[in-house]
Amino acid sequence: MQRNTFRTGMNPGSSNIITGNAKVVRSINRGMILNIIREMQPISRVNIARLTGLNKSTVSSIISKLLEEDLIVEQVSEGQSVGRSPLNLYLKLGKSYVGSLNIDSSVTRTAIADIDGSIKGTSSIDTDPKDPREFVRRCVNELRSLCQSLNIRHLEGLGVSIGGIVDSKNLVVNFAPNLGWDDFNIGDAIREAMPELKSISVGNDAKASALAELWFGSHEVDLSNFVFLSIGPGIGSGIVVQNRLLDGEYQASGEFGHMVIYEGGEPCTCGNNGCWEAYASDKATVNRYMKRQPGARSTSSFSIQDIVDLAKEDDPIAVEILKQTGYYLGLGISNIIKAIDPHVIIIGGRITQAWELVYPEIMTVVTKRAYFGRKKSIKILPTSLNVLPRLLGAATLAIQEIFNGYKITD
Predict the structure, then answer these.
(1) pTM attached to this predicted model
(2) For labeling, which of 60, 203, 207, 215 is most exposed (least CB within 10 Å)?
């Protein structure tokens, strides 16, 4: 599918040609061309030159190198009835694979993905974070087993997504409260267990989910400025501004789950009271349901999925509880709209399975509190990803390294 806008921060055009160190310039142009092929395939060399403003010889030289790297393939265009059939460029699939690792508080999922974001296989293990380095070794062993089952001998890189504050540059988990990790250098642990990896990328799970939506989402809307909300045991968010993911000075941007919506309200895991997460997360939804059903199972064996399933069977309490969650989601989203003014807000998580219940409640609150009389409203949509966003997000972190325009190449 071709798109008219570039979703990954590349800004082609003659006015954006960069001069300076030849290797750096070539690397940036390589990344730009590779991303254009990914987003607009099939596309010809002539059209790439037109879009980038680069001369044809430069484009051909970079294309030749990408063909040598086995990242792209050139094929004769079908359906040409007159004249010489043009050659079009595509990503080459089945050659460059990446590993994906999403570490959650209860379950850790692994996957293998191709460079187009397609997931080739998945597996999972119980999360046991007490000894972080030992647990990372278990994760790597699980990834190796998955590669073996898929007959994949080599991974180009590994992406890891984790709930918490993550220093992506130094591959350090600064703070992951649900795992009990504090200043854990997960990059070193992975290198020790899997030294053959070319690249390792680590990021916050909600930010990684936003990146996956930006790269591989199917919503036909402008995603140059949007917020991705990951609703799970907590609430995380990824903010995209002008096609780029916002990290913040201390890697902690988008911690909206801990903004206070009720002063002196419900206690939150962060130590404060009245946080948005204490009302709109899956955990909060389950807790509200359990209070209405004192004879029900313990919260450890009852999940948001159970409530969604009950609501689909018209259980009145489940329906009411989910509508309440929609109301609380609307309160937080109203504040985000006033703070960020995004074009779109995308929501991921199991709560989206009850979209017909929660969406009207969200919009009722947002319309009343966020728009200040404006005629146009911001789009609020469920994720378009058909794979767990934070798992695909981890893969996208690794895939992004392959497409990175600032990687110095020979």
Answers:
(1) 0.88
(2) 60
